[in-house]
Amino acid sequence: MKAIVIEQYGGKDQLIEKEVPTPEIKSNQVLVELHATSINPIDWKLREGYLKEMLDFDFPITLGWDAAGVVKDVGVDVQKFKAGDRVFARPELSRFGTYAEYAAIDEHVLSHLPESISYEQAAAVPLAGLTARQCLVDFAEIKEGDKVLIHAGSGGVGHYAVQIAKSFGAYVATTASGKNKEWVEQLGVDRFINYQEEDFSEVLEEFDIVLDTLGGEVQEKSFGVLKQGGRLASIVQPPDEQLADEQKVKAGFVWLEPDGEKLAQLANLMVKGEMISKVGHRFPLTEQGLREAHELSETHHATGKIVITIPS
CDD domains of this UniProt entry (predicted)? Predict the structure, then answer.
């Protein structure tokens, strides 16, 4: 099968197309013919070697940890899926990723994909959508009426977080650039903050939850907009524990745990029309396509998600 792999750490030119064996599935796995995947910052961070101490994979490495496609074969212990099922998933982290025509995926991270959701829409969701859900639901225990600040609401994790928070009946503020104001407000945002013109820390106060997607100074300032007992979830760096104690807030770094049942809950939101995928950019599964996709992701200015299409 065709795959885009890296054989050493480095720049986007390390992404090369190769013919590799189709994966052999274990008893608890499903072989999925992929129709789409998507780009996440972890892809190029691993490619550059930033994560090699945490994720010490042997080369060659096939990057990519979002999957949408059709089941081709199932292991002997698989109970919930059969050949022909439409599925999507955030696979477990391994060196056999989803920049490929096929992937072997553990049953427990898979979810059925409703007919009303396209493969492109679905491929955009798993890593970013589950990250947003884990931050807001599992860590911050969001409830109706909470005031929630989501940084970078036009980004991959951000635009799902806005919609998940609204589905709980929360009041949502978000930061983004002025060019994204209209479409972010269409997601239901109650207070839009153009970070180029306003300082969120000067106009917001007494919030229950902050979702930090940026880190650094933004994270530090975010403590100041939380009420006592508030919650700050970061997906970029561990928050300052001393600052959290001083402000009397719960703060933590959230590392995603993939889960097929929770992914099914996000699919249900999409079916009900309470959540959409913003596919802002599409590239083909080629060397050039992946290199351009990585280059765009590294700018941190992509709108919504970057999807890779995989012709069957």
Answer: MDR_like_2
Residue 29 in domain: yes
Q: Which helix (H) or strand (E) holds 42?
A: helix 41-48
Q: Which domain holds residue 136?
A: 128-253
H-helix or E-strand spanning residue 203: helix 200-203
Query: Do 249 and 136 have their domain in common?
Result: yes
pTM over 0.90: yes
CATH number at residue 194: 3.40.50.720
Per residue in 64-100, pLDDT (tens digit) is: 999 999 999 999 999 999 999 999 999 999 999 999 9
- In this structure, is residue 262 part of a structural domain? no
Joined together, the tokens standing for residue 83 give: 């050949």
247 and 132 belong to one structural domain: yes
- φ, ψ for residue 105, nearest 5 deg: -130, 135
